Structures are given as structure tokens and as C-alpha cells.
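Aim 2, interim progress: modelling of the magnesium ion-bound target.
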Amino acid sequence: MNDHSADHPLDRLTFTNRFTTELPADPDTRVAPRQVTGAAFSRVTPSPVSAPTLLAHSPEVAEMLGLPAQLWPDDPTALDDFAQVFAGNRLPAGADPHAMAYAGHQFGNWAGQLGDGRAIALGEILTPSGEHLTLQLKGSGLTPYSRGADGLAVLRSSVREFLCSEAMHHLGVPTTRALSLVLTGDKVVRDMFYDGNPKPELGAIVCRVAPSFIRFGNFQLPASRDDLDLLRQLVEFTIRSHFPELLPVGAVGGDKPISAEVIAAWFTEVVRRTAQLIVEWTRVGFVHGVMNTDNLSILGLTIDYGPYGWLDDFDPDWTPNTTDAGHRRYRFGQQANIAHWNLAQLGSALVPLVAEVELLQAALDRFPSEYQRAAEAMMAAKLGLPEAAVDDEAGRQTLRDLQTELWRVLTLAETDMTIFYRRLADLPSDLDGRHERMAVIADAYYRPEQLDTDTIAQIDQWLVAYQAQVRASGCDDRSRRQAMNTVNPKYVLRNYLAQLAIDAAESGDHSMIAELLDVLRFPYDEQPEHEAWAGRRPDWARSRPGCSMLSCSS
Ligand code: AMP
Ligand code: MG
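Predicted structure of the complex, ligand included:
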């Protein structure tokens, strides 16, 4: 560890550490892999790394923390300290580093205790604007939850987490954030395809930032062990710290036990947020890839960016995760069902605290209608049809028909989802002629040879139905286009773009990470100088690892 420099800006962060102050700690401080009982977390120090280099940071997250957006470009000492701190080499004053204990269902099977095996939170801070945020280093070495693994992360997965967290935020999708990406200077051995070819890769650490990293699995762990004291403490902590609006007036600062009704209301809110989250993923074409219960945030944030992917060509059956290639449990079109299943597991974990099980069941049963309502509003927005169009049952049915037919039509030929919606915004509602209409959306098609007469006829029939719906809505083309372009992004983190940034970074050129981050900060804007990044995935990326499929190895 480096010397503590008392006058450094990072020592002025205000650590509040509510999680570690208010919840029981593991009394054992060894990092040896083991079952941790009766504790919400274990205190653990990040492992030192040999030569931290800051590759990229998010100006918006820096500002949230009260740091200058561009850090300290003229102060190498401050900048170096930033790299040391967010590589885990120096603890800022007030930090209370720890790894959380949680369990989970992985691919539908109960996996028992998991926990932060390669993530170490530095602690929770209070920002200048009054927000509580936890800073967490991912890839910072062994914890009691590392099981047989090394607690480290490699550059490729860290670039992907760093860029995607920020891209999702700028798209308006709830997510954990990323402050920084540092190279550790150490090598990490990974067998990327689990095929007996381990290779040394560059080690890296992302500092993730979120109001909380609590997952469904945090509650499953004590519930699975009948540790009702810990379960109650965790639930009460979560509600008091992160959902105080659910507490009866006057009870916010109190310590009276939280009632079953409030716990059920909280679960209802988690159901609502989770449904909304999947709707947002559907809107932008994001596939999480590993929706295990330990990877679902209690706050409804996208969390744990592993083998995620973005739809290039629209395909509800697509999953980026090679580990899931057989069953495709976590495919794009299945994410809502899986979220519902995961919520059922969370609900089961809460049963011991809510004698009236019907309250939890009722909350869980709201998921399908909650999801459908939000999904319909989202689809209406994507199609530029005003909310009024889905105000009554007839309007909703028309929209449902239009959407069902669109999802079918989008799979007739390989169609780039992102480009399709941007082009659709340009379609004049009175444009005549099949050829003319198809010309407007032509860019979205990967294989023009698939567009035979019959396919074109089906696509165009949908376009004509859409035009009629637009005209019936009374919305003028200009306002529709503007509105659509605020919900249909032009730029997403296409899998191949992330891979290009990784390839360059692995050979020492980090510039594309910053460039991509800059473009993705304004995903709905036209950025003519970066037009190429809004185009279809190039052919070479069709089957290249990292561009079309990913493993969990990171
Ligand atoms: P994930 O698939 O990333 O959600 O991880 C599932 C579990 O494995 C979590 O408990 C992780 O902390 C743990 N884990 C994943 N990768 C590593 C690693 N390289 N070292 C230690 N633990 C890990
Ligand atoms: Mg995880």
C-alpha cells in the first residue's frame, strides 16, 4: 500500500458506510474460501496490483461523486493517486472495504452461497448532492466468496462493463454506473472458450458505482438457511435505506419492526421496477445473457455486465452467451418470463417475514399485467403513436396486432433492429408505392437477396398498416419523427464495436474506448462524423468470437 496522502481530493469523499455499519459482519477476516453464516458481508482488503494505469473514466460519474469531470489533467500526482485508489492499492480515508454475501439460482438451479467473489466495495459515500453511492472495484482479488477462482478480471470484460454501463445510462436504461477503467499491470490467465487453451491476458479493474449492489440473492442466502434474523435485518435495511417512501409517515428514522404490509408493498415495487427494466432492455435491444437471481438488482438496475449482447438483426431467440447456447434460457424474447421467475424466487425468500402469503402472491401476480402495460406504452412510443392511441381497448388491440405482426415481419429477412426503427421514423405517412416505401428502410436489411417478392409484399403490407395507423392518430410526420428519435437510439454498443475497442486496447491503443464512450453519451443524436458506427454489423463480425457470442469467462 502507498502512503496515505491526507490532502488528496479522494480523501475528501464522505464515507457513510451504512451497509457495513448497520448490518452484521463476518467475524472471520481470512480470505480463504468458505461458507459465511450469520453475516451480510466480509471485510476484505483489495489485493495490491503492480502498475495501475488509468485507461478511461466517465466524466458524469466523476461529477456525481463531486470530482472534476475531467479529473486533474494538470496534476499528475492527483491523477496517479486516482489510479492507485481505483486499482485498490490505496484506501481513501473512511473506506470500509468489503465483499457481500449472497446466494442464487444459476440457470434455474439452486447454487447456494455465491457472494462477491471478485468485487470489493470500498464503501458507501454521500455525494455533494445528497445521494448515497457505493463504490465497488471489480477484479480486485480474492474474497471469502471467490470459491476456486482468482478474484480478478481481464481487460476485455472490463472494457465491456465500463462502456456498457455508461451507454445504458445515456440511453435512459436504469443501470449501475462505471467511474473508471484501470489496467493493473498484471497478467491474468483465462481459458476464454473453456477449451483447454488458457492464455495470459491483461488484468483490469472497473470501479462500479450504484446506490446499492444488493441483489435478489442477498435475501435468498439467509432465507435458505432459515436465518430469519439476518433476513429481517437485510430487508429492513434495504427498505429504510433505499425505499424510505414506503414507510409510514414518522417511521423513517424509527426502529420499530417494519410491518408485513410494508414488506409486501416493497416487493410490489421491486416487481414493478423489474418489469420496467425488462421493457427498457426490449426497447433498446439488450440481452443480459446471465439473468441468474444473483444478477438481478433489488433496485431494478441493470447489473453485472458479463456475456451480454445487443441485437443486430432482430431475433427474439438470440442469446450472446455460449454457456447458454443449448437451452437459450436467457434469450432476448424470454427475458420477461425469466424476470418473473426470478421474482418468484425472491418472493419465496420473503415468505417467512410475511405471514399473509397472499400479499406476496398478489404482488408477484401483477408482473404480467405490469409488464404488458409498460411494454405496450414502450411499443407505442417506438412506433411514434401517441399515448392516446392506446388509451382504450380498441386502440390497444390495434397496437397489439401491429406489434405482433411487426415482430413476425422483422424476422422474415435479417433486419437490423436499431436501423429499422430510425428509418421508420423517416417514412412519410402518405408515401405511395411499394418500391418507394421499401427504399426508405432498405438500409436495415443485411441480405438483400432474402428480399424476394413475397417477403417484400409482407413487409410492405405492414408498412401500409402502419401508415394508416399514423394517419388515424393525427400526428404529423415531423413531430412523430422527432418523438421516435428520442426513444429509438441511433447508436448502441454493437457487439463488434466493443470488440474493436478491445482489440485496439489489447495492443496498446486505448483511444477507441474514449471515442466510443463519447459517441454513446449522445445515443439519440445524429453524429455525422461517426455515421459508420451507426451502420450494420460488418460481415466479418458475423461469427467472430466477442462479436456474436461470448463466454462467461472474464
Ligand atoms: P457471475 O457469473 O459473474 O455473475 O458470477 C457468479 C459468481 O461467481 C459470483 O459469486 C462471482 O463473484 C463469482 N465469480 C465470477 N468470476 C470470478 C472470478 N474470476 N473470481 C472469483 N469469483 C468469481
Ligand atoms: Mg454476478
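The chain has three domains: 9-213, 219-375, 386-554. The longest helix spans residues 357-382.
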